[in-house]
């Protein structure tokens, strides 16, 4: 039984700088980093010291709140630096990578013949576990939970997002083994959601042990949060897990080959690149070489690990985020604009028709990071609802968080959302409200209340 | 524009923290952001790009959508004046100029008094100056009778900004529509200057001019309430707006042009506008069935073109802050405004124009409507939880 879901509200943002369909494999970068900040609510406890040698799959730190969750080095090499911030918070664990990656190897095994506990243990020890995340809260999945379903979104609708049908076209075996392992973790189904009206790769359409659902409509149709809401919504006390399709393959390789091979193909995109295209690399890689190869344009650039809608800014010699399969480069917008709010605005992006850019609806934009105005209290209504395809009142939920009323947040559906679901609301907001930050604050508040 | 930017950059330190004029930062900020869209960029996490729209753009477009009403109002003031004096052959331009001379002081006083109050509040309360008054300042003169004394207008505007808005925390926090608060204040404080048959048309004759015999000076609704059926202007006249009334409210055509701008740009709520008209139409239709007095006999479409109904539906009911916020709520809110406006009109002969009171009443009711709409959503979410199966089957 599969479902067909039609998403009506949303927005497909047309940006220039789409990645060309070619995958480049550069030599392994010199330096890698694991950033504990990539994981929501994590307090890391180090297992290694600077100067230690590690292999790919050697545990580097664990989660203080759940010591069974290990975070492992994606490459082999030497720990060269532990970067700390204020109050000695660990920001980065930097690893100088070997030319040839050496793996911590275990015996390959068929997940069909393993019990649920054996699979969980293998995932935890290998460093694969953090790839599995949960709703509510968007944290790493709790190994003690029994999720009612696992969701995999086989397509990403973010602006300039990677095309998984292209990336995963030849990974059927490992993907299926990964699915087989995940299948034993849930009491319910694995939902593999593919995009309607497109030729999805066989890796998805031929997958076994999953329920394949078809989703049509604009972004955020590819967000798991939206898919969960329409297929198997989360009520208080329920847990759903989700994982990115590329990470299913990493899990597949763990069982198939017995190694932690955190390879990832990344779409390097954005109008500020001469040659936007795909790069085959490894989680946590330094992006300097990649940006050099894709040729960064001149100007004050902002490098984003992830999409323009919910990614994180990183320095030009920064590192790829743990969950990100995309790097976007756009121009900073730190310039004044004379009477900008009064100008006709033929080139200004707006979902409203308040600027004359409505004359060219198919234009591809090269947008910068300017806020285009100052933050104000909520004034306009009905805007968020146009891009928020859930049966949840987005403004009212945000307001319940602003007044820190946990009971009201629960009633209004906080368990079903994560930051990324509010990204479009933040994009189009007339009052420039930072919705994603507010949602994260609300999720953290609820999580602490019940932990 | 570089020299101007340089000048602002040089002045800025004086107003920033530690500067001599630190207290006046909100005023400086308002001025600076009026001239230049600031160089603020998005945060390092979250949405890195933003829509070009902001509150300034939104508000200026609402002001733009009011311009047809304003221009027509200016002409109509002159036209009605000359009509009352029996001067039928006055050119369009002369009518317009006469009206403009009468209306411009109202606009200046409204903006002057309102913005001064806003600036003072912003400085005392240390918050930025919000753009909301750009619209309120234009709405207030448009819903006043032309003969309103300027000092009264100033007092009403200050009252509206303080009691209607600032005491609640400024733009976005108010419960009542500020412009209507100003009008309601005058209506209850100085009823003789806000209703009757002497305020709608300027009849001060110059040398050698006298008011014509048939002149009454009352609005269409005033005449209807008094039972003068033959004096009610026909539907064409009231649709175009060549009737006595508040400065900007008379022309349904001008209101519809404004509505088109608001709806096309996506600023105004079509849900509210259409349901206001639907509610009014339906109520008038019901009254037609009884037809007990003159007001009850006016046809539904005719009702919608009279008084401030169209103006209220397009510009007042749609104020997003004081209206309902949920989409479902907007239908209910709008429908009840239209419904009540006609009801008040018909059943309150002392004050035949019910639109203002209907909107203010529904402003107060809006949070209640939203509350029930959201409660329904909460119940829907709770219903999803499947009942726990009995172990015995």
Automatic annotation (TrEMBL), chain A:
InterPro entries listed in its UniProt record: NqrA, NQRA_2nd, NqrA_C_domain, NQRA_N
Keyword Ion transport: yes
BP GO annotations: sodium ion transport
Keywords linked to the UniProt accession: Ion transport, NAD, Sodium, Sodium transport, Translocase, Transport, Ubiquinone
A GO MF term: oxidoreductase activity, acting on NAD(P)H, quinone or similar compound as acceptor
Signal peptide: none
Keyword Translocase annotated: yes
Top-tier EC class: translocase
Domain Na(+)-translocating NADH-quinone reductase subunit A C-terminal positions: 265-314
Residue span(s) of domain NqrA second alpha/beta: 114-259
Annotated catalysed reactions: a ubiquinone + n Na(+)(in) + NADH + H(+) = a ubiquinol + n Na(+)(out) + NAD(+)
EC number, as in UniProt: 7.2.1.1
Domain NqrA N-terminal barrel-sandwich hybrid: 5-97
Its biological purpose: NQR complex catalyzes the reduction of ubiquinone-1 to ubiquinol by two successive reactions, coupled with the transport of Na(+) ions from the cytoplasm to the periplasm. NqrA to NqrE are probably involved in the second step, the conversion of ubisemiquinone to ubiquinol.
UniProt record similarity statement: Belongs to the NqrA family.
Subunit structure: Composed of six subunits; NqrA, NqrB, NqrC, NqrD, NqrE and NqrF.
The protein, known as: Na(+)-translocating NADH-quinone reductase subunit A
Organism: Flavobacterium flevense
Automatic annotation (TrEMBL), chain B:
Cofactor(s) essential for the protein: FMN
InterPro entries found in the cross-reference section: NqrB, NqrB/RnfD
UniProt keyword terms in alphabetical order: Cell inner membrane, Cell membrane, Flavoprotein, FMN, Ion transport, Membrane, NAD, Phosphoprotein, Sodium, Sodium transport, Translocase, Transmembrane, Transmembrane helix, Transport, Ubiquinone
Membrane topology: Multi-pass membrane protein
Keyword Cell membrane: yes
GO molecular function: FMN binding; oxidoreductase activity, acting on NAD(P)H, quinone or similar compound as acceptor
EC number per UniProt: 7.2.1.1
Cell compartments where the protein resides: Cell membrane
Primary enzyme class: translocase
Membrane-spanning segments: 58-77, 97-121, 133-163, 239-264, 276-295, 301-319, 331-348, 354-374
A Pfam family of this chain: NQR2_RnfD_RnfE
Biological processes per GO annotation: respiratory electron transport chain; sodium ion transport; transmembrane transport
Recorded catalytic activity of this chain's protein: a ubiquinone + n Na(+)(in) + NADH + H(+) = a ubiquinol + n Na(+)(out) + NAD(+)
UniProt KW Transmembrane keyword: yes
GO CC annotations on file: plasma membrane
Residues found modified as FMN phosphoryl threonine: 219
Family: Belongs to the NqrB/RnfD family.
NCBIfam families reported for this sequence: nqrB, PRK05349.1
Subunit structure: Composed of six subunits; NqrA, NqrB, NqrC, NqrD, NqrE and NqrF.
Function: NQR complex catalyzes the reduction of ubiquinone-1 to ubiquinol by two successive reactions, coupled with the transport of Na(+) ions from the cytoplasm to the periplasm. NqrA to NqrE are probably involved in the second step, the conversion of ubisemiquinone to ubiquinol.
Name of the protein described by the UniProt record: Na(+)-translocating NADH-quinone reductase subunit B
Organism from which the protein derives: Flavobacterium flevense
This protein's encoding gene: nqrB
